[in-house]
Design brief:
Length: 344
């Protein structure tokens, strides 16, 4: 009995250390995933005119093998958002083999959302000539995404509660994509203009909804941004974990001051800087204003974890997701760059 008691005590002492070691290993894999995205992005830029990888299809072309997608992006009043939606659908069909046809077996076009939010990585994975889902899109700590990706046809645990107070989350074109989404999101400045152009709105935050972007002016282009537009690549975040999953506590939305989400910078370094150390950011459509207030209040049952403090929502800043002056700005290691937004 004494031997059993000693063994039990040793196991109890070792389990926390083993758990910590596994957590460290999963964090290393997460950082490796991001580093591979960065390396692929650098290679992508070499094979293109220095382009930052993002969706680039636009009306006036017929790039898809599916006539329906070409028709969709070339309708009257179509814009580059519609082109991006068509391109994301095209990649998913080709890389999953789920082709065109009836859902849920086949991939239907999603005309409801910006595909850039959770799916910019698809452009890189397509460039890397990989099948989907690809494990490099998910942090090993992102267990829900790994569950969905393990069997994309099983949507029994896919959320139907929306993160933007709308009813679209229950629609099949949203739900069938969750298995192919990513832990990592690209900052909007990597695929949208840094600021509004005159009266034309660029992509910006919607204060009430932490994960909703405003609709762009149809005259503005999405995609086509270049690495040479990044003035401070070692100080500017490119991809980031939407939630900090490695700090030992509950998963935390990236914008919480104490969060240390893994971040891929434009110089291809991967770090986990504390959010409070970053500059507070701005609203690209109100560039002379203060940092936007972002209310983090996911609906119960959504894909995102609950708020850390107030169940009805925590008010946070936009931080490095919305860098002041976009690609020309600084997130870490220096004060915000002002190139005339405040008249200075």
């Amino acid at each position: 009995m004494l031997v059993i008691a000693i063994i039990s005590t040793l196991i109890a002492l070792l389990l926390p250390a083993i758990s910590r070691t596994r957590g460290i290993a999963r964090n290393v894999v997460c950082k490796s995933n991001m580093r591979q995205l960065g390396i692929a992005g650098a290679s992508y830029a070499v094979d293109s005119p220095d382009l930052i990888p993002s969706f680039w299809w636009a009306p006036g072309s017929n790039p898809s093998q599916w006539a329906g997608l070409n028709f969709f992006m070339n309708r009257a009043n179509s814009d580059t958002l519609n082109g991006a939606q068509a391109q994301a659908t095209d990649i998913l069909r080709r890389r999953t083999g789920r082709s065109e046809g009836q859902a849920p077996e086949k991939i239907v076009n999603n005309t409801l959302r910006y595909p850039h939010r959770r799916f910019t990585h698809l452009v890189l994975l397509d460039y890397m000539d990989t099948s989907l889902p690809d494990p490099r899109a998910a942090c090993p700590e992102d267990r829900r995404l790994l569950e969905w990706a393990s069997d994309p046809m099983d949507m029994s645990t896919v959320p139907t509660a929306a993160d933007d107070d709308s009813s679209t989350e229950s629609r099949i074109e949203i739900r069938q994509r969750w298995a192919y989404s990513s832990t990592y999101q690209a900052v909007p400045a990597s695929w949208a203009p840094d600021t509004r152009v005159g009266d034309m709105l660029t992509v910006g935050p919607v204060e009430r909804f932490y994960n909703l972007f405003n609709r762009i002016d149809r005259g503005l282009r999405l995609g086509g941004r270049k690495y040479t537009e990044v003035d401070f690549p070692a100080s500017k975040v490119f991809f980031f974990e939407f939630h900090d999953r490695h700090s030992g506590g509950p998963d935390a939305f990236y914008a919480y001051p104490q969060a240390r989400s893994n971040q891929l910078f434009f110089d291809n370094s991967v770090r986990a800087e504390r959010t409070s150390a970053s500059n507070p950011g701005f609203d690209p459509n109100n560039p002379t204003g203060a940092a936007p207030a972002v209310i983090y209040d996911p609906a119960p049952g959504s894909a995102d974890p609950p708020p850390l403090h107030d169940p009805s929502g925590d008010t946070l800043k936009g931080q490095y997701r919305w860098t002041r002056d976009g690609l020309r700005g600084v997130d870490y290691g220096g004060a915000e760059i002002h190139t005339g937004q405040r008249g200075d």
